[in-house]
Amino acid sequence: MERLIYLDNAATTKTAPEVVEAMLPYFTEHFGNPSSVYGFAAANKEVITRQREIIADTLGAKSNEIYFTAGGSESDNWALIATAEAYASKGKHLITSKIEHHAILHTCEYLEKKGFEVTYLDVDENGIVDLEQLKSAIREDTILISIMYANNEIGTIQPIREIGAIAHEHGILFHTDAVQAFGQVPINVDEDQIDMLSASGHKLNGPKGIGFLYIRKGVKIRSFIHGGAQERRRRAGTENVPGIVGFGKAVERAVSTMEARTKKERELRDYLIERIEKEIPYCRLNGDRTKRLPNNVNFSFRFIEGESLLIMLDMKGICASSGSACTSGSLDPSHVLLAIGLPHEIAHGSLRMTLSEETTKEDLDYVVENLKEIVSNLRSMSPLYEDFVKKQK
Ligand SMILES: *Cc1c(COP(=O)(O)O)cnc(C)c1O
Hints:
By secondary structure, the chain is an alpha/beta fold. The chain has helices at residues 17-23, 39-59, 72-86, 102-113, 131-137, 160-169, 230-233, 241-279, 306-315, 335-339, 344-347, 361-380, 383-392, and strands at residues 5-6, 66-69, 93-97, 117-121, 142-146, 173-177, 196-200, 211-215, 283-285, 296-301, 318-319, 350-354.
């Protein structure tokens, strides 16, 4: 059989078999609309409440602070747009970072067109937000700070607790896009002083098309999808019962396995990093070495086009990414890699590999052997590399 090594778990993950199994009865037997009066369907209300409790427990939140959405992008859009609208009379300034997911950045651009002002914080060479710059960006009219928990491209984890404390010292709401971090690092919304948090099912072995927004009690936020009275009148639409059940199961699973799973992933991640740094010349690890998601590896290889690298890896059955899935197809280098200060030509030669619990050391050995050969072949075809080698002599 052809070998398939899936190292693109930041783009999406395999739905766990027990998640699928938990979901199936909600397509077939228990298909009722939770808003219906008869017991057969109304029982699904309890089922949803139970999932809300499971999720809330893992965050130290209350179950009525969890609002189901159709995924991370919707949660991000909702948090930003509805907060901006609800607090516009207090101020029209928001703070975010230059390395957010496009679900945040493009929503900020939309808000700028609607008359809001947004400050985009720089990050250092490892992708970490500068807390002093954050403090000095705060104004009288700042209503929201939105900084991602962990970055989807380079895996850098932000000093979330410090950011939450700064926001609250100034009476400003704090939202975090935790789509990559949730299920990978322990999160507590009180200790981290988080007012709103976005998460998504398909990034932690749950189904696609389901997410949630945590909204702290007392935050004035408008509904985003208008219609029925679902989700405490804040998010209309017949509940995605199978999705919610699958999400609950995935969260339960991710949290109960977190310690052992991430320990193993961290070891394999560091093994892969070490081998690449030792065996492939002219490469650079992107992102912070320690404040990093357990499963993220991101390298730039000089004199290489990331796209060519991906195609050659694909021919060997290796699935990886050269940036964010949403940006491939465009020729612009990743905004994240530019924000950490990489020149365009180096940002173009980047490769992201994101591991899963199923990744083995043998997989990674196979990847390194192929990567070495591919990088060397691609470089041998590069006139820039030829010039470079001549100059070295
Ligand atoms: C995947 C991702 C999203 C979008 O989530 P969807 O559920 O795919 O809409 C948002 N933010 C980050 C950091 C992500 O990795």
